[in-house]
Design goal:
Length: 357
């Protein structure tokens, strides 16, 4: 009896030691080590190269990168005469050196289109049609095998509701520009995964359904689309049920699902530049907990709703409050990221980690 008691006690001690080792282990692990799907972030490579702590955090936690701006058309084709590959090459080199997946953002986007294309394209339909083809073909061919996937078309729908956005591309070429863009990208790199990417589709049902109709039409026409990107710029009070519904609907297409630009804010905005409303002046402990909960739920939903073979990954639109696009774009103070202004992990980081694990 005594012997039995001793064995049980010994067993408990061994288990608790193992358990605390495991905990310590998880504590030391980066986000990327805790999942089967890639964990990415938007990056500014020049900044990473000049900020050792930021770079260390980036490498420790992430195994996928999306250039925040360096791969946009206004950087790659600043004028008619030349391509500027320099910035893109740096992004590729960073990804290669640090063994991270490289995601291409973005080929065709109204806000990424430089003025000179806007002007010339509005005057000359044939030229624009040809430019769409050559730009995508040259770009995607050049990085064939290097870039794993692309946001081929970004934000083709209005901010709210189900109408196509009236952009240069739509006005001049009609909605067929979308199918064309996917076909050219596929021709240039048949192995690259090709995404349609948009915002508010996780909470605006009219927009979600318009996007899904477009995606299903593309599939029926054999247009080579591989995935849907939910940018997922959300606010802490967007109901989980709505996000759940949208993810379920998107999963039904059978395509890859990328949460492509995740961040979670507190304040309000009207989606436009300088359109922020400063409701909260500071980040309280209570708010930190609410945000952590939301990050945790987001991972849970992704893991539960999206089948493994459709999980392209979760990518953050930056990982520190210090560097978030939200502040300058909406002209408000906010705290949307996993790390704070001093690059210290927030409760959101630990909650996200726990949910991954
Ligand atoms: O975060 C990006 C910001 O630095 C740029 O000024 C802006 C315009 O190029 O684009 C921001 O990123 C956007 C992304 O490319 C597409 N989805 C919305 C993102 C936030 O505006």
């Amino acid at each position: 009896m005594k012997k039995y008691f001793l064995y049980t006690l010994l067993g408990c001690v061994i288990l608790s030691v193992l358990f605390s080792f495991e905990n310590l282990n998880v504590e030391n692990k980066g986000l990327k080590e805790l999942t089967t799907f890639p964990i990415g972030t938007a990056v500014r490579v020049d900044q990473l190269q000049s900020d050792a702590k930021l770079k260390e955090l980036q490498i420790h936690n992430f195994n996928s990168i999306t250039a925040e701006n360096d791969m946009k058309m206004y950087n790659v084709k600043p004028n008619e005469e030349e391509y500027n590959w320099e910035k893109v090459d740096k992004v590729i080199a960073y990804g290669d050196t640090n063994e991270q997946r490289i995601f291409g953002h973005t080929l065709i986007w109204h806000s990424g289109t430089p003025d000179w294309v806007e002007k010339k394209g509005r005057k000359d339909t044939l030229w624009l049609d040809n430019f769409l083809k050559t730009y995508i073909f040259e770009y995607v061919s050049r990085y064939k095998g290097k870039v794993d996937g692309w946001d081929v078309v970004n934000e083709a729908f209005d901010t709210k509701g189900g109408n196509y956005r009236k952009t240069l591309w739509y006005d001049v070429l009609g909605k067929e520009y979308i199918a064309k863009a996917f076909s050219y990208a596929h021709e240039a790199d048949p192995a690259a995964k090709l995404f349609y990417n948009d915002f508010n589709i996780e909470r605006d049902t009219a927009k979600l359904h318009a996007m899904l109709k477009m995606v299903n039409d593309l599939k029926n026409d054999n247009v080579p689309i591989s995935g849907i990107g939910f940018q997922m710029h959300i606010r802490v009070d967007v109901p989980d049920e709505i996000i759940e519904y949208s993810l379920k609907k998107a999963v039904e297409t059978g395509l890859q699902i990328h949460l492509s630009e995740v961040d979670i804010i507190f304040n309000k905005h009207d989606d436009s530049k300088n359109g922020g409303v400063q409701k909260y002046q500071e980040l309280t402990e209570e708010m930190k907990i609410a945000q952590a909960e939301k990050y945790k739920n987001l991972v849970k939903m992704y893991k539960e709703i999206v089948p493994k073979n459709q999980q392209y990954g979760i990518t953050f639109w930056g990982f520190t409050d210090r560097d978030t696009w939200v502040r300058s774009f909406f002209n408000i103070d906010d705290w949307p990221c996993l790390f704070d202004d001093n690059l210290e992990p927030k409760p959101a980081y630990y909650a996200f980690k726990e949910a991954l694990n």
